[in-house]
Amino acid sequence: MSALGLQRLAADGPLLSPVAAGVWRLDEWGFDDAALAAWVEHAISLGITTFDHADLYGGFRCEALFGRWLKANPSRRDAIQLVSKCGIKPPDAARGWRLKHYDCSAEHITASVHASLQKLGSDHLDLLLIHRPDPLLAPDEVAETFERLRAAGKVRHFGVSNFSPSQYALLAARTPLVTNQIEASLLHTAPLFDGSFDQCLQLGVRPMLWSPLAGGRLFDAAAKPALAAALNLQAAELGVSTAAVALAWLMRHPCRPLPIVGSRKLAALDDAAAACRLQLDRQQWFALLQAAQGHEVA
């Protein structure tokens, strides 16, 4: 089976793999250097070459853990794409952060990028996202910061995460954005109806999707029997896993979402690659929507 190819995230956006590998819980996986290398190289062998980070993942440890592999294998930098996020400050007495808050100031964005690059062992990020919409975000300041980071070669492209359509439009009016990373799954279908996917189609940008398998909850036959049954039926008919069907359901949308799969299991990467080769027909797609919502479409 051939590896997946790279795809453009937006007209002027980066080339990323059609699904990304997420490392939110890397610090919990218990990988030694050999296990981490095996996981990363397996993903790359499938064509899953985009790795999704955030500065605060794992208590600000996950980027450095991943960086152990990249620093030991610097020649592999050109084989992968690095995405990171910034802007969330959790409570941290050592850093002087008394409560969780957001910070999209020029000072914080710049410091976060420099720290991420040092931890990852890279001279640039392919994509930087503002992690959460900050009520105190000053769009002109963020735009100027992005431009300075781009001009310095530190970050090549920019986007946001968890922004509403109006919040996205505000910042996009000041600076080019190439994605909105949002939650979407068969258990969280809001982006289909709240304007998020519509905006992506209108602007020609592809959303990145976190928690596309709802943390595994959509396979819980006790909690969601109709959905689990529908997924099992289609998986059997198509000869793939239920996870592959659930991911293919998301990817079927015309805005061409890019799901992020975060699991230590190599099989989860295999499922994600298999999903990229599935094309659900309309009735299969609506059967899963009906099962997820518990009723026919109106």
From TrEMBL:
- Name all NADP-dependent oxidoreductase domain ranges: 20-286
Keyword set, alphabetical order: Oxidoreductase
Single GO molecular-function term? oxidoreductase activity
For the protein in the UniProt heading, the enzyme class is oxidoreductase
- Coiled-coil spans in chain: none
Its EC number is 1.-.-.-
Please state what the protein is called.
Aldo/keto reductase family oxidoreductase
Q: Highest lineage ranks of the organism?
A: Bacteria, Pseudomonadati, Pseudomonadota, Betaproteobacteria, Neisseriales
